[in-house]
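Translate structure to sequence.
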């Protein structure tokens, strides 16, 4: 029953987050992506989460599979997929995550297989970040390797702003992450969720990185009632049942980790996006779109493209007024420059 419930939860999570994965113009026009398909294990959500930013970056799907052996249904799906000329497969995880047999089955179907994986989920996230950002990144997203909720939110951030995603030990900064940060050389590390120790932020700052932590801490205080002088077990049992009936749903509700997405550090934006956002800020957060070319020095088509990207990132909204658009910032921009 436990195994079936686990698969059900995994399937439900996939159902909710799969719509986030859709092709975007991440590649240079005319240049095909290095991979056509990402394969992850279907019995552990973390590899799927870590793969999400790179799936979006490349505009390719993720296929969760049985980590031990591909079944006949999956084999048929893969054969159909390959008929479109998509044969370059990226397998995420080491041989403990996805077996050698699965790799041999893929090769037997005619796929060209590349495997990226480490001994731990932290190491796997590091290897993926270095694979897809060989020239470094201005911003890196960081989350706890033990907190799937925070990792899922971090994946969304990485997808939205096209940043690499790293996972770390929740108590201190993993050594492989420290090494990866040296190679990626970011200006800013965005920490996501409440599943990490404050020491991690301190470590990052001591290493010279700017940090921004997206999280919300919730404190719940429960007072203990004064016990009666004489124990009435009927009342005690009734009180326990009533307490559990109220406390369990309340605890499940308030125990969810929350973080505010209403504040965005300007470092996560591209250089052109920053210039446009600053121009809007200089106008009090609202500006006519037709004024932006003069304010920024960019052409009208360039401004239009930048505004569309900012809309995708849910940072601005446009309202049609007459023959022009009014552009408004929808989130608070954290300025560090």
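Result:
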């Amino acid at each position: 029953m436990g195994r079936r419930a686990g698969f059900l939860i995994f399937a439900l999570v996939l159902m909710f987050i799969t719509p986030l994965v859709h092709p975007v113009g991440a590649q240079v026009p005319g240049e095909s992506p290095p991979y056509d398909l990402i394969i992850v294990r279907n019995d552990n959500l973390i590899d799927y989460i870590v793969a999400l930013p790179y799936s979006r970056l490349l505009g390719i799907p993720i296929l969760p599979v049985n980590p031990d052996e591909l079944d006949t249904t999956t084999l048929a799906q893969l054969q159909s997929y390959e008929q479109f000329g998509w044969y370059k497969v990226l397998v995420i995880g080491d041989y403990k995550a996805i077996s050698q047999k699965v790799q041999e089955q893929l090769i037997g179907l005619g796929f060209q297989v590349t495997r990226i994986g480490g001994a731990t989920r932290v190491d796997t996230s590091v290897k993926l970040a270095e694979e897809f950002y060989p020239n470094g990144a201005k911003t890196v997203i960081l989350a706890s390797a033990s907190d799937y909720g925070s990792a899922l939110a971090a994946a969304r951030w990485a997808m939205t702003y096209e940043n690499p995603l790293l996972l770390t030990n929740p108590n201190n900064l993993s050594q492989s992450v420290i090494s990866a940060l040296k190679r990626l050389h970011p200006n800013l590390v965005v920490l996501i969720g409440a599943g990490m120790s404050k020491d991690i932020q301190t470590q990052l700052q001591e290493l010279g990185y700017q940090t921004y932590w997206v999280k919300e801490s919730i404190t719940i205080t429960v007072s203990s009632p004064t016990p009666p002088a004489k124990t009435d077990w009927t009342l005690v049992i009734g009180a326990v049942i009533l307490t559990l009936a109220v406390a369990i749903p309340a605890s499940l509700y308030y125990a969810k980790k929350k973080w505010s997405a209403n504040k965005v550090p300007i470092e996560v934006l591209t250089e052109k996006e920053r210039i446009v956002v600053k121009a809007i800020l200089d106008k009090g957060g609202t500006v006519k779109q037709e004024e932006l070319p003069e304010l920024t020095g960019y052409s009208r088509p360039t401004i239009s493209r930048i505004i569309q990207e900012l809309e995708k990132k849910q940072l601005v909204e446009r309202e049609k007024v007459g023959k022009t658009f009014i552009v408004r910032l929808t989130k608070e921009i954290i300025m560090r420059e």
